[in-house]
Amino acid sequence: MYGLRRKAAIALSLAAVASVTTLGATSASAAPTVNKYAGLEVGATSCGDDAVTIERKPFGGGADIWLRYSPSCRTIWAHVSGAAAPRPGDSAGGTALIYREQDGAADRCNAGQDGSCSTAMLNDAGYTSHASGTNDTGYTIYRGTTRSY
Questions:
Q1: Model-wide pTM > 0.90
Q2: Which residues pair with 111 in a beta bridge?
Q3: What is the pLDDT of residues 66-117, one digit of tens each?
Q4: Which of 19, 32, 35, 129 has the most CB atoms in a 10 Å sphere around its CB?
Q5: Is the pLDDT of residue 32 over 60?
Q6: CA distance 145 to 143
Q7: Which residues pair with 57 in a beta bridge?
Q8: Bridge partners of 96?
Q9: Closest CA to 135 of 99, 98, 100, 91
Q10: Which long-range contacts does 40-45 make (Cβ < 8 Å, 24+ apart)?
């Protein structure tokens, strides 16, 4: 009888250790991924070196909205080009917005005198995002959105 109790106690101990180990591994793998490039400008990193354009979409007034992705950095960002330049005392100009769909994380930039800008990068590991752009020519406001990636 003593041997049976001892075997049962050992079996229960092993089961408890196995469940703690399994629970620890599950909660650790569910932790959010930290990306050291998130929030940085692409030009301040090497992320642009292997960047690919997921989609470049013309959307009016001569502007294009770009959805860009870096496989090595696991980041994504938006770029607008060909938009109207900003004018003092006027809301004219272009913008780009990168939007991460799962949690609503986003970043926006305003086009400079050359009609372009790129947003800061967002972590893309395990997320889906899209880019949106506006081009306010002073007469008409054009909007465009890329597909999600």
A1: no
A2: none
A3: 999 999 999 999 999 999 999 888 878 999 999 999 999 999 999 999 999 9
A4: 129
A5: no
A6: 7
A7: 65
A8: 109, 133
A9: 91
A10: 40/120, 40/121, 41/118, 41/120, 41/121, 42/68, 42/70, 42/75, 42/77, 42/118, 42/121, 43/118, 45/73, 45/121
